[in-house]
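Same chain as my last thread, 275 residues:
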Amino acid sequence: MIFIITLTVVMLERFFHWHHLRHWQWFSSYERWLSLRMKALPAALILIAVVVPPLLIISLLQHFLAGWWWGGLNFIFSVVVMLYCLGPDNLWAQAYRCINELSKHESAAMDHAQVAFSFSAKNQPQAFHQAFVRAIFLASHQRIFAVLFWFVLLGPAGAVLYRIIESMGTEAMTGAKLANQVKALLDWLPIRLEIFLFALGGHFTAVWARCKRNFLNGGLQKNDLLLSQGGVAALHILKDESLPEGGIAEKEALALIDRALIIGLVILALVVLLN
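reply #2:
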């Protein structure tokens, strides 16, 4: 069931746009309301109080639906929860829209890409493309791979946990710093798995040469750097080599992400079959 749900979600996310249905404003309002009433308490207690109720609701719903329609309702519920936890924006649709704007040489194209993928770069083509490609790899993890990883490990509650913690880290609230620390812990293993998938889908020796020093010993603060380095190395772009411009490097990064997802699904299918 886990493989079928994951495959369904990946296909739906890859070829359809659901971002307009993902509204997390309710969670921001809920977090703000609860944090203001608990502001005198330690940040850890606030984080627990914010996170536990949604996870408890998801777990109870999953348990209640498990016996209905031979698992059919549980399947639909899991797919819906997963689709809701991805993103919130569709990686491919947003990236290709930015690439098309860049190819048309629109004056605001660089600004649009930086806002969409939350990065900043000098107003110089090579510096911009290097930052954009790295931002695509980071977005692939935050929007897709990490949510899939925690779903496979913990079910729908795992996907909700990751998205909630990630959302808390972006809010200027009392528990934001702690939430980012927890997110770094949640990111450590799936980021390294994603790098491994990039290596299988790209240039394995280049990735190993670039990442071997910090792959297991790198601290939590090096998660994002390690992932971006691994992604660029998988494209077989040397450390001091310029990236192809005109959207070429960005399209290669997206193609690498597609291959990594396919390889990951194959590995998951094998694990399920062997068990």
